[in-house]
Amino acid sequence: MGKRIMIQGTMSGAGKSLLATALCRIFLQDGWRVSPFKSQNMSLNSYVTPDGLEIGRAQAVQAEAAGRDCDVRMNPILLKPSSHTGSQLIVMGEVRGQYEAAEYFQMKKKLIPGILQAYTGLAAENDIMVIEGAGSPAEINLRDNDIVNMGFAELIDAPVLLVGDIDRGGVFAQLYGTVALLTEKERERIIGLVINKFRGDAALLRTGIDEIEKLTGIPVLGIVPWTKAHIDDEDSLAPCLQKIKKQEQTLDVAVIRLPQISNFTDFSPLEEHPAFSVRYVFRSEDLGRPDLVCLPGTKNTIADLIWLRSTGLANAILALAGEEIPVFGICGGYQMLGYTIADPLSVEGGGIREGLCLLPCETVFTSGKTRTRKSAVITEGSFQGAKLEGYEIHMGRTQRLGGRAFCHFSTGEEDGVQEGNVYGTYLHGVFDTGELVQPLAELLAKRKGLEIEEWKAEPRSSYRQRQYDLLADEVRSSLDVNAIVRAMEAYDHA
Questions:
Q1: What is the C-alpha to C-alpha distance for residues 57 and 264, in angstroms, rounded to an integer?
Q2: Which of 70, 294, 331, 361 is catalytic?
Q3: pTM of the entire structure?
């Protein structure tokens, strides 16, 4: 099997993804060949691999931290929620279909052979596998069909780190309750407890740590601080959507927080730029008069377009666009900006819906999903010459009826539409190269009558590498990595 460690959490959002990312980087720094793995991920934040397959964004981030290209085997099962009870099922990067929760629960054990094949293939190519669980292993109602927590740990005989979130409060209850609900065999797999997202004086935890170690018989291997590193969030429900506006910044960017928002990490480069303040808006009364309005991607364009109108946000956006406030749409947000969205195959419920009519284009949903990596350049308009890198993940085709193309792919095809102060594109990661960010900052500053210092954009790739190193340094200083390596070696030779 090779060396392996599995990160499980007391709940969703406990910090499993971030800790897994940190361990991927730490092991890389120590000279190991390392790969992330998550058998089943549920997220609307996805990514396209170099060979055009779809995986969870978290595993793409972890792969980058591990110094390697992302591989569909790192996340063989991806669930993209489309309702409260249903999800699109993606198996080995390809859409398998739409499933209700109960239906998927009954069939998911049939996916185990494919999951194991993906895992063993990666394990054979690496020294260490860093495996991420999902939710909590204490969800005892899901134990019988578990393929992502203790069920998978048993299949590959992996040691487990159990992570609790102290920021939410009750971390000792989280850890004790989770351990107590596990079977004796499952408890024996836990080689250490980790207290995550700590802010304060660690000495004040000493008596609690002594007690939890006595109650569970499991050592606490680390108290990991709230990280200062800027790492993309995994989940579409992540706390990052409640960002605090940085008052010292000068350019106000309002991203509409759609109910089924996807790939919100598209806006991370704007958050990193010193001239921008990015906030996520869910109510029309909170929109105000920003310098830029962004419509992000969504898993269900039609449903979120209906929501946009019902909340009054649609009218508010139209009013701002009429005042020449720039509006920028990506993927589903781009589709919403057009004249109509037709759904003849009932991909999202059927019918034809009127869009916001801010861009001269029409969208028709089709049964196939576009998944591809792209290079592009903006050939016209205010951002002419900006080189872009990104990926497309969408259902449907959009036809431009006027205006100008937003950009042209290296293949010669055009993408998106720009007309006046409104822009739309299918390209996720449109800001990642940084070549669009500075011209955008200068355009908005000029409109606002501000002067901003010239910002020499650090290439995003080097910025991200620095963040992974910062994360690794923070975690290494607070976690007993040697104890984890010893535990992996013990399992390796068992």
A1: 11
A2: 331
A3: 0.86
